[in-house]
Amino acid sequence: MFNETSKMQRIIITVVAVVAGLYLIMLAPTQAMQTLKIAMDQAFVRLIPHDADFYPAIPILAATYSIWIILYVFAGSLSLMLAKKLYDGEKWARATALGLYAIPAVGGITMVIPWFVLALAEYPEKGVPPATISGMPPAMPIMLLGLLFYYIILFADNDSVKNKFLKLIPFTGIGVVSGMVFMNGQHGVRYFIHIPGNFITNAQGLITANPDLLPFTSPLAHSITNLDHLHWQTFEFLSEQMVYSPQTLALLLGGYLNYASSAILVLAIPFMAMKKK
Q1: pLDDT tens digits for range 58-70
Q2: Which one, out of 29, 58, 72, 246, has a CA that is 20 to 30 A from the CA of 110?
Q3: Per the domain annotation, does 146 fall within a domain?
């Protein structure tokens, strides 16, 4: 998929590798962590007291943001290591760099969307107070700069305008799909791990932790078995007897399988770039 590069193009690619590497190591992790902290604080203070369905977002975001942050540092470190090979015009290095910069581009998408859901969105029908946060998340530059690095690496060669346009479609599409698949996975896992019995409504009508926690021996206390006794939409108790719920499997696959699918799509990018035709 790559054509030959001129010396000036190789210099540009090398500079991008160094700048991207330093950014992903030194700035992106802090921007991601700031976004995570603000979004989680808003969920704790503004959303969860009015809707317990928001609580599973806390462990999910804590885990996935942490993984993305680690991947940013890894991608940045490898970007710096590839700088010399990129200057030498090695196509495998350029394909690898393309995959590395897909990490902040896709990861940035998955960090921006929760900001709109947790920090900016209004839910008056649930009694949620108005948002106190405005503007874009601190992680927005991660997505934008990731895309910038990505497209510079993709287009910095002597290929024709027509071929560059043809490359734009699949290499953009696979990143967008990866980000959206990941976010669908977030929602699947969110409902999969939700244990309704851990929450009650207090006298003020607010959601709070259940002081009488479900015993760990109860099927209602585990995400695999709780929907066999609860209505999968309203979480109303249905029966002491187990009634197999297909929703458990649907949520598991719709969550964790989508995570895996998103990762595979990102991993596919350098292999696509190495194709000769």
Answers
A1: 999 999 999 999 9
A2: 246
A3: yes
